[in-house]
Amino acid sequence: MRNLKLFFLILLLFSGTVFAQFGKNKVQYKNFDWFFIQTDHFDVYFTNGGETITEFAAHAAEKALSSIQKTFRFRINNRITLIVYNSQNDFQETNVIDQSLSEGIQGFTELFKNRVVVQFNGSYSQFRHLIHHELVHAVMNDMFYGGSLQNIIANNISLTFPLWFSEGLAEFEALGWDVDTDMFIREAAISEYLPDINRLGGYFAYRGGQSVFYYIANKYGKEKIGELLNKIKGLNNVNEAIKSTLGLEIKELNERWRKDIKRTYWPDVALREDPEEFSKRLTDPEKNDGFYNTSPAISPQGDKIAFITNRNFYFDVYLMNAVDGKIIKRLVEGNRTPDFEELNILTPGLTWSPDGTSIALSAKSKGYDVIYIINVETEKRKTLPIRLEAIQSVTWSNNGRYLAFIGQNKKQSDVYLFDLETNILTNLTDDIFTDSDPAWSFDDTKIYFASDRGSFLNNIHLNENFKIYEHDHSQTDIYSINLKDNRIARITDLPFSNETSPREDANGNRLIFISDLNGINNIYVKDLNSDSASFRPITNSITGLYQLSTTKDAKKLVYSTLFKASFNLFLMNNPFEPK
């Protein structure tokens, strides 16, 4: 449990009360010119090139505030300052607080002046979620503390909220219920490590707390949340307010919530399979393999796996024998040098050269993301002449000449192509939509990717008045882009699920991908030669699967999954064969 808490602290958000002033106390790589706009309730500050994401943030903030005030049955008394950064690397240079901001910290709300600070990471869906989450904290600051530290001191306010309450409420208000939380709570319940309510700390404060509020809303009605908050304001005590609102002591609420969790998820044990039942486990935290093993990349020949792990406390890149899981060597030391300040663990992507001699990966270096190519034998490396706000999911072409990856600028994320012979960088999609998970076709004529673009397959379909905040950016499908004419084709059209991580078989006949169609991330296969939209699942996992990687002949597949309280790597043989 200790390890799990540490891991989950880095994953999603940081929302706390931090007291600091502006000041030059961090390494500064960039000079920012600041601008601001005003809405009915917000002063929104942004930097050079951030006009598009700021317009989105302003609309998202007003919409979120309307929802929050309705739920809370409270109207804010003070305007809220919202500070928007164009990327994670820019965000980490903020002087609003003086503490270091690791990769897992996406945003924060500080109480000194009730300022909300957020970053754009290339996904408008995640950006909306982040803004809504942090505004819950800002509204609570205004509702209970008068919106500033000075007011707390002047009025001798002593009320404090448990972490599960403040973070869980923020997640529930921003998301309601979502697939990621559902998968997380299912795994914790079935593996029997879900804490009691009063012990929901770390990442459990977010997901477990969200589950508690989801239970309250379903059992007693969502209006009870507003009633509860107003009772807290009157009684100045969280537990007493819960008893007054629900008629339950916190102990009884905990018992009812846990029983409801069991009733919901335990039947899945009879209906679904553990990953160990259909694949081979390669890592084990009980053997000091670390509790965070992710971004697996199996070599084209299938003999080695490169992956990111924290088995040495820091996040490093290791090489593993793909047959028995034994460690061959540590290839990259992360978080300790200027070249590898961060390994982009939240959006990872390692890739092998076709001959299996080198890997490529992205990492933070001096305020930007760059791509390194590392020889796995000599460990010599070179830096490619690429520098973007963020780089994710690097993948090597089968002919060895190109790298494809997701690059982020100040307003969007796109599929990029880099020619290793000419050093020419090309933005292939170049539009406002969020793209992710690029993967090469077997003959290098196409690149598959996931996107929230819906039916918009080309920039010419966008009129000059198109606004991303009016577009449904909450759902992703699989697409392909033809490198001869840059035509985008839609591969899946599933409006009520998310599809990611496409991988083509060795002959270009079938495509496997991850979908949460049944509420859990599972692997599906689709026949590319058929006009039919039919596809079928090839796994029925009880826990969500992530980050597929296949060999050149598609006979082996590795993936990462949350299994028994840690992220582990698993190996499947013949994934395209019928089960």
Topology readout:
Elements: H1 2-9, E1 34-38, E2 42-47, H2 51-72, E3 80-85, H3 88-91, E4 107-110, E5 115-119, H4 124-145, H5 149-154, H6 163-175, H7 179-190, H8 203-220, H9 223-235, H10 238-246, H11 250-265, H12 268-271, H13 275-278, E6 280-281, E7 293-298, E8 304-312, E9 314-321, E10 327-333, E11 351-352, E12 358-365, E13 368-375, E14 381-383, E15 390-396, E16 402-408, E17 413-419, E18 425-427, E19 435-440, E20 446-451, E21 477-482, E22 488-490, E23 499-504, E24 510-515, E25 522-527, E26 535-537, E27 545-550, E28 556-563, E29 566-573
Parallel strand pairs: 2-3, 3-5
Antiparallel strand pairs: 1-2, 4-5, 6-29, 7-8, 8-9, 9-10, 11-12, 12-13, 13-14, 15-16, 16-17, 17-18, 19-20, 20-21, 21-22, 23-24, 24-25, 25-26, 27-28, 28-29
Helix pairs in contact: 2-4, 4-6, 6-8, 9-10
Give a description of the structure.
- The protein has 579 residues and is of the alpha+beta class.
- 26% of the residues lie in helices and 29% in strands.
- The protein is built from 13 helices and 29 strands.
- It has a 5-stranded mixed β-sheet with strand order 1-2-3-5-4. It has a 4-stranded antiparallel β-sheet with strand order 6-29-28-27. A 4-stranded antiparallel β-sheet has the order 7-8-9-10, with no helix packed on it.
- A hairpin with a 3-residue loop joins strand 1 and strand 2.
- The N terminus is likely disordered.
Can you describe this structure in just a few lines?
The protein has 579 residues and is α+β, with helices and mostly antiparallel strands. The chain is 26% helix and 29% strand.
